[in-house]
Amino acid sequence: MSSIQHTTSTSTVASRSGGALVPTNSVTTLDGVTVRTRIDPALTVDEVVRQLVTSPTLRQNGSPSQYALRDDTDELVTNDNLRRKIKSRVNLKLVNAPAQEAREIAEKLKYRHEKSIRLTLFSLQKYIREEQFSTEFLNHNGLAELVAVIEETTGNTLAYALTAMQNLMELPYGWSTLDSAFILRVVQILSSPNSPINVCRPATAILKKLVEADPHSAANPAAASSSTAPPAPPPDSIHRYGFGAVCEQMRKERGFLETVVNRLGSADTAMAQYSMNLINALLTHATDARWDEFIGDLERLNVRKAVVRLMSLHEIDDLTSCILDFQANILRVTVRKQYTAVDPDADATHALALRAIWEASRLEEEVDEHGEIVKWRKLGFETEDIPHEFRDEGVLGLECLRSFVELDTDFSMLMLEQLSRPAEKRCPIAKASNEVVELLLNHWRAFAPGYSTTTTFQPFFLDFQKVHSLATHFFVRMWAESGAAVNEDFTRVSDLVRSQIKASLRNEHVRQWHEVESDFNCEYQKVRDRQMQELELEDKILSKVPVRNLRAKLYKESYEFVRQQRIQCLLQGAWFVNAVPVDAPPPRNPHRKPQRPWRFMRLDNALKYLHYVDSAVKFPVRNGLEDLPERIDISVISEIATGTCAPPPNVLRESSDLPSSSPPGPSPLSFSLLSAHEGSLADQIAPDQSRWADWTDGLNMLRRDGGHVSSKETAGFVHALTEIGLKIKLLDLSAELVDLPDGLTAGPPPASSDFFFSDIVSG
């Protein structure tokens, strides 16, 4: 007896009477003939297709291997999803097999008939991610033909071709032969401000993919920006491009980077998001050879200001993730500048900055009573050795001092005012500038690049130099109002400024700049009173340099500990409510109970796939993956969006796993797994805040670049573990009343090394 039974060969759906088996699906052929058929879910797809093709009812020509099944959305029916299609009674289509379709499309691209090319490309962009299709397409020189179409076409045809290429590049193979001419063509498309949005979106995604496909990423994604030379990739590896290959072509189009930055202000949110993702990829993968040049270009284009403007928009949910990634990248840039030594003899830009600072002061060199030149000491440095003076703040300190000088039009008057005072009463402005840099770095916890746990926007951090200038002016004023003297009171004034920075930059994601300026205009006595209150709660030992270094080390260890805990929760798995996106159309019958309102998800041990099963009721899930037939590829998840969906009305009423007071609308415990090309892959609601934090942050931490922390709960865990660890370490010191120094100074070397061997000689 056949495992597939047909009920009718007409083009309309007919019901069966009597005791016959109920059909499961409708199948439509290429000729438009529709049959109602019952498919045994135990069969393989190949066997289902064979029985359909050879059945007398359909009478299809050719071998069964030339055919395949697709649903109404053109998704290919495979052994992995056949059972789901049968259960859902999805309408199916008997169509050409992917390999057959691929050969035909590759052939059509070769001749590029104007009337049919768009339809051909439209089909290509749908099917190219399928393994059978892509393999056959590439074997028939399809990639070269697609590149030729991109080179020759414009408008919507070009948009379709670029989207097809974008989808092809989601595969981990098949595009390693793309050359520099193709990269230049994509760069030229993006360089033109007149390129349509539907062309720029896929072009931007393609360039981002090329940037990420570097040899470092092939071996160790976390070391993508490492200065160590990577091993040469295999000849057919896609990991052969990277920042260097793309940057070489970017330099040929002078307006490229400016145009990409300008698109951050696009009214099309998707375009702004694509542009932000490209900038983040460039920042993440920038090589040492081009680092200074690239970062300098971005700074000149005011990319930070463009991102701050995005932060101020109200409808930016889609941009939140990439903005937080940008903040993390700027943290890396900031810390790298701090660790880059100032060397005016070897670096012309350092010498130029120092000359601009000196010329703005309008001072003249002098010779002291010892015959030594006095120049930089007039500005407030302790010595004339500039590399030594910037030993802790590096290039970041130099850039901030230059910015302070340039932002203050009366800088020369400020210097003359200080020099008119007795030497012991002068504020060492250059030293104060460096101290403010340290205070700001400590406030924003900029000591652990790659371990950012901020869950909120930090617009003032992105305007680091402007905040530095404001705080340095405050330092100078507090120095004068408190009657400070150089030797005794520098640390005391620094503590005042630290207190003010903490107060003025609180909740910066909701504050306006004028509020910060107003806070920094407060009087000395008010700052002093608040500081006294803070000192009652906080031990001064925490500001010592060795303790700050210890905190940085513990911070990294705490972050990694929480990361492993979150991933362990994913490996154990959990039940969630299947939710509905808030922007989805309302159901025709809102009172109808969904067939499978529950979903159990579990991460596999290889950390590559999320396996899941949808069910009408929750049941005990065995260890392993046997009970979880469906899966989601982690690598295609581009964003974990939160607060995006709501439970179906009947689930909201009936479920005891949801808060009883849950209002209609987006649930604060909801999250969606979004793909750049397929939309939402999953829309779930967690039963409680703890599981929501475990999964949203765990999935974010799985990302190749480390991602960012979404929940305040996880950020709080990292902070709490760091503080607890720090206090435990400090207990060992405080119990012995050990005095922590601000720094360590090596003593003179021994006069002789004979004592190393005295015991041996005497023996």
TrEMBL record:
Q: Which domain of life is it from?
A: Eukaryota
Q: Which GO terms describe its molecular function?
A: SH3 domain binding
Residue ranges occupied by any ELMO domain in the UniProt entry: 349-505
Instruction: Give the signal peptide range.
Output: none
Give the matching InterPro entries: ARM-like, ELMO_ARM, ELMO_dom, ELMO_domain-containing, PH-like_dom_sf, PH_domain
Q: Where is this region: Disordered?
A: 1-25, 647-669
User: Which controlled-vocabulary keywords does the entry list?
Assistant: Apoptosis, Phagocytosis, SH3-binding
- Residue ranges annotated as compositionally biased, kind Polar residues, are 1-15
**Which BP terms does GO give this entry?**
actin filament organization; apoptotic process; cell motility
GO cellular component terms attached to this protein's record:
plasma membrane
Role of this protein: Involved in cytoskeletal rearrangements required for phagocytosis of apoptotic cells and cell motility. Acts in association with DOCK1 and CRK. Was initially proposed to be required in complex with DOCK1 to activate Rac Rho small GTPases. May enhance the guanine nucleotide exchange factor (GEF) activity of DOCK1.
What is the protein name stated in its UniProt record? Answer: ELMO/CED-12 family-domain-containing protein
